[in-house]
Amino acid sequence: MTRQSSLIVLTLIAVVTGLLTTSPVTAAPSVYLDEPYSENPTVWTQDWFDADIGSRNRVSQITGIDGSAIRVSVPAGSHFGSAMHWQFEDQGLSEPEELFFRYYLRVPDGPEHGDRGKLPGPAGLYSGSARNNIKPTSSSPGWSARMFFSPTYDSRDGDHTQIGYYVYHRDQASDNGDLVLWDTHTGTLRNDSWYCIEGHIDMNTPGVADGLLEGWVDEQLAFYQDDFKFRGSGESHIDVKSFWFDVYYGGTSTAPSSYAFDFDSLVLSSERIGCGDNPVSGFRDTGGNVHQTNIEKLAFAEITRGCNPPLNDLYCPSDSVTRGQMAAFLVRALGLPSSATDFFTDDDDSVFEANINALAASGITKGCGPSSFCPDRRVTRGEMAAFLDRALDLPDAPPDRFVDDDGSIFEAAIDRLGESGITAGCNPPANTNFCPHDSVTRGAMASFLSRGLSLPAPPPPPPGYIPPTVPDGFDAIVPAGWSIQEVADSQPTGARIYVGAGTHFRQSVVPKAGQEFVGAPGAILDGVGVTDYAFTGSASNVTVKNLEIKNYTSGTDRGAVHATGTGWLIEGNNIHNNDVVGVSIRGGSTVRDNYIHHNNSHGVFVDGGSGSLVTGNEIAFNNDDQPSSSTTVENAAGAKFYNTTNLTVSNNDVHDNRGRGL
Question: Which residue, of 229, 323, 467, 482, has the greatest Cβ tally within 10 A?
Fold first, then answer.
């Protein structure tokens, strides 16, 4: 890989399986250090080098995920938050060639535009190199692979922080270390949320560029690269010397404002660690919320999917619930059948109209007026009581349970709700009031529904696992790191499968008939030069849409997408840099509105059959790996059509292909 000074290396070169991640070991690993931060920093830092608490180590004790944690502060006008090393030889241990590390990280306030700096990671500082813009050499050997933080490099708002490695190694192009981004989806952290960060280094064969760095976020693979040269020929004594707990702002510039980084549960080990007993909540904004347990029950029952599709990592527990949203929640919770009757005149433009009609048909709602439902109006606690009273057919209750609902048309329903244990009131601990006129928040709604439906608690997840939420209109989701094939196998014919943002390495999918695979913005399938096909098979009517597909190695006249069945739709994809063909299809299939470019042979190959359509594509720079004198150039093209009938080719932009265009 060519490395240039201060460039962000965005391409992750990986040879990984299609599973979620490498499974964390179940047996106890050989642990070098297990630091829970339960003691004061002046105590636990005694085993660390250069760890005096002061201007270079501004460390304080805080409340963490489960017990104590530490906060590292970088004041305005400074570089240092911490600079200490945990050195193997100081602990009477041999320096290893391989190390796994794990810590929990929370960034309370993210870096401003252009700000970046270093975070803890492993190092081998055997001389004055591998830091301070000093490139390692044979006369001054060493290396370092600290983590780094920066603002996001995509269009996300300022509430996120990007992480990666900052690597000093023999092949770096300049004196600066290389900034190597982790996956821009998995490796982008929402501020003020805890994440489980894992890393792995395996030293290279001396003099050979085969050193490995890996990284995981919440047990999902976020980085893999195996071509680093940390040590030169004859340098077998260069190993992992220390774990460098470095929190440092910038390079030459100092922090323009104060920053803080929170850490919990640091572990160093000879084996993969995993995220232990501290899994992170499925929603990033429910931690510590009084309704958190009931929100998790609601999500487990698939009554809610979140509030920020398609990512859906937020629940928005403090937001008010509209009557339209309430209809959707109740229809999902109760499994109500749809209705063809249009009960109300004011919901024609509402995305919840079908839910509203189903709710009305069941008798749970009577509307807010003649022929009106008021779908955008906020639900009051009194209205919620009436909804649930009708939905659950609650038994009669003694009157006047609360003192503030006298005269309310919902008083009887409120009394029944209280008697059933669905509500305790709104002014704990006295709970003499119900607050019938207050708006219902999404958090309170989760508790109402969870108690009313007696929802079970979800089973405990695997360590560190975050359950994915399926976007509306889809049957399944495949987050980066999961096996697309396993998800496809678990779904029936015709299922719509949402391929999550991030890089999906070495995926090869044989779909069932009618299955659709639709990519989220930023969804990438990377064959890393060792995988034949992204999608292939004889199933009919398969859809592949909105994906970036690259680095596959299909055979002669076969595409990274190789459809041998009929009726495939390949639409809106970016298909490039595949070793042979971009897309190959048989009869009756459609290739539409794709950008198909820089593939080593044809961009598109239609091989046999009848009635295919190739339209609206940009087909460019294909057949680009052959010298101009090669006969292969004359046998390849931007698009090639062979032994096919009733083919339609229209409105394509075909340009700059070596050899023939069509």
Answer: 323
